[in-house]
Amino acid sequence: GVCVFKLDAKQAAEKFKQWIKKRWFCPKEAKETAKPKDFKGIYLPYWTFDTQTTTTYSAQYGKHRRKRNSKGETVTVTDWYRCSGTYEEFIDDQAVSGTTRHEQSMLNGIQPFDTADNKSYKPEYVAGFASERYSVGLKDAWETAKTLISARLRSNISRKIRTEHHADVVRGLHIRTSYTGIKYKYLLLPVWMACFKYKEKVYRFMVNGQTGRVSGKIPVSPFKVVITVLGALLLLGVMWYISNL
Known about the structure:
Layout: H1 9-21, H2 28-33, E1 37-68, E2 74-97, H3 104-109, H4 123-126, E3 130-131, H5 138-165, E4 169-198, E5 201-208, E6 214-216, H6 222-243
């Protein structure tokens, strides 16, 4: 399938301008001079997976309470309890990149895509754009998908335990998941790619061709980093001083 471009090159450039203006650590000069050149529209390969998951789990949940210690100080202690159960969730369109030619962190930064809004492949959909063939096969993509799904399930199960038991924390969560009704799609997803130059260095970025979400590298101002660190230290110092009055 194909998820077609919803933004043209001009709209992608505007999204980039809005994005870089909000980067605090980026030097002002870079923001003013960053002019992306040669926007390239490309369809990148992705696999998506649907599956019903059934997970058995065991864990410990903790409830905090306040008490006085032997010195008469009020401290927080945690009472721990064991629990176990079964959790079911249907996973819809878990996306996995099918390319190794681009930085994964940059690809992650432009997620998510609306993969449900896909059309059966037709040559006219990709006419005028580059299309990359997958370099990550189906088997390897499924292994990656299971890792991503597992992280999602662990988060949801931890939330479920805290809610059901009115707990404050969860630890020692062990899960075992079975997958049924596994289905997959091979999709081409739309991405605008470009770069800009600042002080003789090239910075590359991507724009999601559906949503306009931007991800990429930017120059960093050491001065702004120092100011931020000093400001944070000053704030912590004030808070410490107030708490000890």
